[in-house]
Amino acid sequence: MEKVISCFRWRPEAVTRLICFPWAGGGSIHYARWGNVLNSSVEVFAVKLPGRESRAREPFFDNMQQIVDEVISALLPLLKEKPFALFGHSFGALTSFAVAEDLKKVHNLEPIHMFLSGASAPHSETRLKAPKRSELSDGEFLRWLASVGGTPPELLANPDVVRLFLPALKADLRVVENYRCSEPDGPVLSCPVTCFDGKEDVPHDLQAWRNVTSGDFTVRMFDGSHFYLKDSGNEKILLDFITKTLEAAEMHYL
């Protein structure tokens, strides 16, 4: 399991696990350190995909089902053990939903809450009509990346750094751009879903996520653009919200 998951603080006594999925090209460290911040009732698992960090020598995944199969294979025994919630930003929002959908349909397991950030729902027209960024030339791609924000300009200007992270980013974008999900006939999930987004980000069809669950649905907007959650003030608000939400959910399991 350690191959697929980063966990900075193992908490066997925790009531809930929060499983976090990286943004495109991202690693697990940003989320893993949340384990040092959230209170002792929550154990944080950060998903680590091939082609980066300790898995740098492994080939990237080609499609969403490979991610789903690996994550579920690694985590299934633990997911049966105690309540869990899912968090994903951007590409991670879509991978976390794909995992949740498979867990529900195949294993009849469901998170107690889904936190989805910075992404349109997989079946929304907004996402399906979005341009395929992975097909851009490296120069065009870097210009687009600079416009999104969240990556320090000095890193984008460093060819060695670009050579390191560009392949992972493009590989993840190819996965998500080829991920097809038709609008559900009815809600796939019954757990509450919360969507987060930056007010200055390109508009996402957050409301379309309402269709994936019969549970409560809320939207919370933050100051900032696509990587609003990298801002320390926003991160604190976000983690406080997640903590309070999980504490309320935990009351049903104590």
Q: What does this entry look like structurally?
A:
With 254 residues, the protein is of the alpha/beta class. The chain has a single domain (5-249), classed as Alpha/Beta hydrolase fold, catalytic domain (Rossmann fold). The chain contains 8 helices and 7 strands; from the N terminus they run ββαβαβαβααααββα. It has helices spanning 29-32, 64-79, 91-107, 125-128, 138-148, 153-156, 159-177, 232-250, and strands spanning 5-6, 16-21, 42-47, 84-89, 113-117, 193-198, 217-222. The protein has a 7-stranded mixed β-sheet with strand order 1-3-2-4-5-6-7, with helices on both faces. Helix 2 (64-79) crosses helix 3 (91-107). The radius of gyration is 17 Å and the shape is globular. It starts with a strand and ends with a helix. 37% of the residues are buried. This is S-acyl fatty acid synthase thioesterase, medium chain. Its EC number is 3.1.2.14. It comes from Poecilia formosa. Pfam families: Thioesterase (PF00975).
Annotate the secondary structure layout:
Elements: E1 5-6, E2 16-21, H1 29-32, E3 42-47, H2 64-79, E4 84-89, H3 91-107, E5 113-117, H4 125-128, H5 138-148, H6 153-156, H7 159-177, E6 193-198, E7 217-222, H8 232-250
Parallel strand pairs: 2-3, 2-4, 4-5, 5-6, 6-7
Antiparallel strand pairs: 1-3
Comma- or semicolon-separated keywords:
254 residues; alpha/beta; Rossmann fold; 7-stranded mixed beta sheet; 7 strands
CATH homologous superfamily - what is it? Alpha/Beta hydrolase fold, catalytic domain
Mean pLDDT: 91
The best one-word shape is: globular
Q: How far apart lie the N and C ends? A: 27 Å
CATH level-3 fold name: Rossmann fold
Tell me the strand percentage band: 5-15%
Give, in spatial order, the strands making up the sheet with the most strands.
Answer: 1-3-2-4-5-6-7
Write down how many β-strands occur, each being a DSSP E stretch of 2 or more residues: 7
Largest sheet: 7 strands, mixed
Structural class: alpha/beta
